[in-house]
Amino acid sequence: MKKIIEVENLDVRFLQPQGELRALRGVDLTIQAGEILCVVGESGCGKSVLCKTIAGLLCKEGVIHSGAICYEGVDLLACSKQESRTIRKKAFAVVLQNPQTALDPVMKVGRQMDEVLKLHRPELSKPARRLRLLDALKQVGIHDPARVLSQYPHALSGGMKQRVVIATALLKEPSVLLADEPTTALDPTVAGRILDLFADVHKRNHMTIVLVLHDLAAAYHFASRVAIMYAGKIVEIGTKEDVFAHPLHPYTKALLDALPSRNLGKPRLPDLSGFAFSEEAMRPFSSTHWAAVPKGASDAR
């Protein structure tokens, strides 16, 4: 299978008054064309930072990058800003966690979506753009798209907002869709429907999807491969069958053992002994952050 994205030794640090907060620690990851890759891990392990770094959405001030992010052989961190922006604008689309903040509350849905088409499909006339917007909303399961286009976001439910956000992302016709915990703000029933929608989009468009999730059961159901993140690193990656049936890393085993189906009758959840980082390196950040490197330190292993 063709490799579409290759991440090599990716390091991301945020400059803080105490030193450098290290969010990603030498991440290596290959994403194959046409797959659904689920990235799983606890809150704060670096999943969102990884997605936003690949998409180029992190604020440049106060951020240090090193390593490589190659899209079809082009290193997006090494090429010029203009070239990187052009490639990312065409190739990537992002669905963020909270649809409430992804949509402008004072602008009608149709106008917001039309702005995306004006940018990415400037050759289309206004009537052609409207037909494209109606079709996009139908594809994500909205049965009265004309009404939705004429409404403000506050008039829509959480699930409807997320469908609009997904439809807007698909208007770009991206090669890679990065979905950063797209079901976090939704109730379980609606979350299941949204994940079904991603599976349908993948099947219909043969699109590469990187799906960040907390739900291990959902990851097993929807993923082609699963990547486990812990303390800013990818600690295990493989087919969902291999990772779930034969986990190799202690953190992966602890995650799976924490599932209710595996934990019935046990007095407490499993935990991991020791420290992810040395106590000395963590001390300057002990009151605020834990995955950090103080000034002058090369690493905190």
TrEMBL record:
Going by the UniProt record, its keywords in alphabetical order are: ATP-binding, Nucleotide-binding
Top-level taxon of the source organism: Bacteria
Keyword hit for Nucleotide-binding: yes
Its protein name is ABC transporter ATP-binding protein
Q: Which organism is it from?
A: Dubosiella muris
